[in-house]
Each structure stands twice: as C-alpha cells, then as structure tokens.
Amino acid sequence: MKRSGIVLFLLILCLGGALLAAGGAEQQVLSLLNAGRSAEAAELLVSADVTGAVGEFVRARIALDAGDSEKALHHLSRLQAFYYREVDWLPPALYYEALICEKNGTPETGVSALQELLALYPESLWGRKARQEFESN
C-alpha cells in the first residue's frame, strides 16, 4: 500500500513538472514573438508541441509576421471557434483580426471585430488598446 502511494506521488510530481515545462515553453514562444524573433518562435512551437488556443494564436502571429494574412486569419478563426472558452485568448484574437482586416482593405470586418472586442472585453489590455486606436482614428 505504501509503495503505491509513493508511485502515485511520483507520477503526480512528474506530471506537474511536465505541465510547468509546457507553460514555460508557451511563455518562451510568446516572448520570442514579441521580440520579433518569429523564426525561432516557429522552431520552438514545433519542438515544444505548443497546441490549443495559445498554439493557434502563435501560429497566427507567425503567419502575420511572414506576410501571410490569410493564414493568420485562419488560425485566429480556429482559435475563436474551437477555444471560445479560453477567454484569455479571445481578446488578442479579436484585436489581431481587426488589425489584419484593416490592412487587407476590409475595414468593415475589422470594425466588427473591434466592436465585439469592446463589447465583450472592454477592460482587458486588448480592449483598452483597441479603444485608444479606435478613438484616435
């Protein structure tokens, strides 16, 4: 009985370490992106197997940095459709959707994304940033 308890404790300890390592990889990928190091972020994204909402967001940012706005919008749409319960990732997805649409010459779609962002997440960092840009334009 004691032995199974120790094995269970070690298993939980290992799983916890793996989860922390995965979270660290996600943060590292985001830091690389924010530093303008998209190629390195893309390599780490694959090697660390970053998935889920953060994976879609990172893939969108990498595509945007590479100049592929269609692919970026695809990943942002996937994030919004499949990971709608991960509310931490919806505001930046809406913000970048608006940004891309504005650059692509479809400002009405961009305004729609901004309005959704401001209605649902007005006090988020992304909502405040969008409000500042919306008011200045």
- The arrangement of helices and strands along the chain is HHHHHHH
Quaternary structure type: single chain
* Number of continuous helical runs: 7
β-sheet strand percentage: under 5%
List low-confidence stretches: 7-22
Percent of residues in helices comes to over 70%
The counted number of beta strands is 0
Measured distance between first and last alpha carbons: 68 Å
- What is the molecular shape? globular
Q: Overall pLDDT, averaged? A: 82
Secondary structure topology:
Layout: H1 2-34, H2 38-47, H3 52-65, H4 69-82, H5 90-104, H6 107-120, H7 125-136
Helix pairs in contact: 1-2, 1-3, 2-3, 3-4, 4-5, 5-6
Protein model, in words:
This protein is an all-alpha fold and 137 residues long. It has helices at residues 2-34, 38-47, 52-65, 69-82, 90-104, 107-120, 125-136. Helix 4 (69-82) packs antiparallel against helix 5 (90-104).
Offer a few descriptive terms.
globular; 137 residues; 7 helices; 2 domains; mainly alpha; 82% helix; single chain
